[in-house]
Design goal:
The chain is mainly beta and 318 residues long. Helices cover 8% and strands 48% of the residues. The protein is built from two helices and 26 strands. A hairpin with a 5-residue loop joins strand 22 and strand 23.
């Protein structure tokens, strides 16, 4: 190698080093998944009267009793782990678990069938997917219809990160299709292999005088996984695309289109639909960030039992 080539190599290394030095990562609060709230809920005697443990990402703390949960310690994280009270019967669902990883912990999200027995007889079976998201749940859940309305989806956020970074591991159920199981009647087949989903949306929201919320889409990042990994994939970095991305080769209509199914709590304290009405300009500043990790895709009560997604060390890259 000549002197000129050597200097060019050094110049390239210097450029790469400078780029790395300029990168900034910010761990989301409790995003290392090492700190958890555990809740002991006492289910009603008519369905067995068992004590069940629910897990929430937050400060190390144990709660005992059938009390509606509100995020503790400034935690921005909600889960699909909930206490329901329907017709006076208290029941739980737990799909997100605290799991040991090395010297710390991670989150394990599972898709399973939640079974409810009344007086020893099975009468309701519901498919439940693991969901870890920024926001919170409104407890107690009082019905199985329109489960999304209990979710306050998204948190205030005014930055413009370049990417989302996280560690993950995934185990597919191996089934060629999904099922839909709502608790009423039997299961039905939903065509298509189940996938885990990681979604980050940046929105500029507006609330009108009646409390209705609309939003313009500022930033978009959606990835899906349908093949099992043999081990952890550390430092997975997913780019956030800004503005109207419909002409981008990376745009996937099914997962990245404007959404109208999410709910958020308005200034009146009521959960209302968030209707995305269009795409913001690519230099717009958001007001909210939506971030979700899901063990299944397709909507409420749809998925493949056994699909499992592990998540750890959730960061934003600037």
């Amino acid at each position: 190698m000549g002197v000129k080539q050597i200097f060019m190599s050094f110049a390239l290394l210097a450029t790469l080093y400078q780029a790395d030095a300029q990168e900034k990562t910010v761990m989301l609060k409790y995003g290392d998944m090492n700190s958890w709230v555990t809740r002991t809920i006492h289910e009603s005697a008519i369905i067995g009267g068992n004590d069940k443990t629910l897990y929430e990402v937050g400060p190390n703390k144990h709660l005992d009793g059938n009390h509606a949960y509100r995020n503790l310690g400034g935690s921005p994280w909600g889960t699909s782990n909930v206490m329901a009270k329907v017709s006076g019967i208290t029941k739980t669902n737990n799909c997100v678990y605290k799991e040991k990883r090395g010297n710390g912990y991670c989150a394990r999200l599972e898709t399973h069938i939640e079974r409810v027995k009344v007086l020893g007889l099975v009468n309701i079976n519901v498919l439940a997917a693991g969901s870890l998201f920024l926001g919170d749940m409104t407890e107690p859940i009082t019905g199985t219809k329109n489960g999304e309305k209990y979710q306050n989806c998204g948190v205030p956020f005014t930055s413009r990160p370049k990417a989302l970074r996280f560690d993950y591991k995934f185990k597919s159920s191996g089934e060629p299709d999904r099922i839909k199981l709502t608790g009423f009647g039997g299961s039905s087949v939903v065509k298509g292999k189940d996938k885990a989903v990681v979604m980050l949306l940046l929105q500029k929201r507006h609330e009108d005088a009646k409390g209705n919320i609309t939003a313009k889409r500022v930033g978009t990042m959606v990835v899906t996984y349908d093949k099992s990994t043999k081990e952890w994939i550390n430092g997975m970095t997913c780019k956030i695309m800004y503005g109207d991305i419909r002409k981008s080769p990376e745009y996937v209509e099914e997962t990245m289109k404007l959404r109208t199914i999410d709910y958020a709590r308005n200034s009146k304290g009521v959960n209302v639909p968030v209707k995305e009405t269009g795409w913001a300009s690519d230099n717009e500043t958001p007001t909210h960030m939506v971030l979700q990790f899901l063990s299944s895709h397709g909507g409420a009560y749809i998925g493949s039992p056994g699909n499992t997604l592990w998540v750890d060390n959730v960061k934003l890259v600037y």
